[in-house]
């Protein structure tokens, strides 16, 4: 069984990207489990002072545990003002610590999503990929899918095939050898 931790960059319960994550989860290939990591809204903004305290926030511990237990990480996110949503950036910040040994280190990672802009979230997805790479993830650039939601049914078969192909590439990716 390959487990994929899914980080959703939108907090809206009915967002296109949450629905996309749920659709992928519900239609995952045999032998693949997608676990949508909830609770991102409960994370305090990353602060090294509280991360070094004797009691790391429970929401941060839960996030780290869920991602550490997964084999892969998939971010499904819209674009806000030309960049990734703060909630996703904050989650990656928590996952990057402790430096060099965070829960995301060495994990195959990609980002997909749909946004009602002409560029489909490319800037957000590039930012998320860069941040995850700096945090130590093994980013699969070729599996990034940025889909415009303007005049496109993101739940139509053709578009779903793009997202399913990205998921398959993530699942089949070899994790880099430990250094």
UniProtKB/TrEMBL annotation:
GO molecular function: oxidoreductase activity
Top-level taxon: Bacteria
Keyword Oxidoreductase applies: yes
InterPro entries reported for this sequence: Flavoprotein-like_sf, FMN_Rdtase-like_dom, NAD(P)H-dep_reductase
Gene3D superfamilies assigned to the protein according to its UniProt record, in alphabetical order: 3.40.50.360
Keywords, in A-Z order: Oxidoreductase
Entry EC number(s): 1.-.-.-
Record-annotated NADPH-dependent FMN reductase-like domain positions: 3-145
Broad EC category: oxidoreductase
PANTHER family according to UniProt: CHROMATE REDUCTASE (PTHR30543), NAD(P)H-DEPENDENT FMN REDUCTASE LOT6 (PTHR30543:SF21)
Name of this protein: NAD(P)H-dependent oxidoreductase
Gene source species: Branchiibius cervicis
Source organism phylogeny: Bacteria, Bacillati, Actinomycetota, Actinomycetes, Micrococcales
């Amino acid at each position: 069984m390959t487990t994929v931790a899914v980080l959703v960059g939108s907090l809206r319960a009915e967002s296109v990207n949450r629905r996309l994550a749920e659709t992928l989860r519900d239609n995952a290939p045999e032998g693949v489990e997608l676990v949508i990591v909830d609770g991102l809204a409960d994370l305090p903004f990353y602060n090294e002072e509280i991360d070094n305290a004797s009691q790391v926030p429970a929401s941060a511990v839960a996030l780290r545990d869920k991602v550490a237990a997964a084999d892969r990480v998939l971010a499904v996110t819209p674009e806000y003002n030309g960049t990734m949503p703060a909630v996703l950036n904050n989650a990656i910040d928590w996952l990057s610590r402790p430096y060099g040994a965070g829960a995301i280190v060495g994990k195959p990672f990609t980002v997909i999503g749909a946004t009602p802009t002409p560029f489909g979230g490319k800037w957000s997805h590039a930012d998320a990929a860069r941040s995850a790479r700096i945090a130590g993830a093994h980013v699969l650039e070729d599996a990034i899918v940025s889909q415009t939601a303007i005049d496109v049914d993101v739940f139509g078969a053709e578009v779903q095939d793009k997202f399913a192909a990205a998921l398959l590439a993530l699942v089949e990716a070899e994790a880099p050898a430990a250094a």
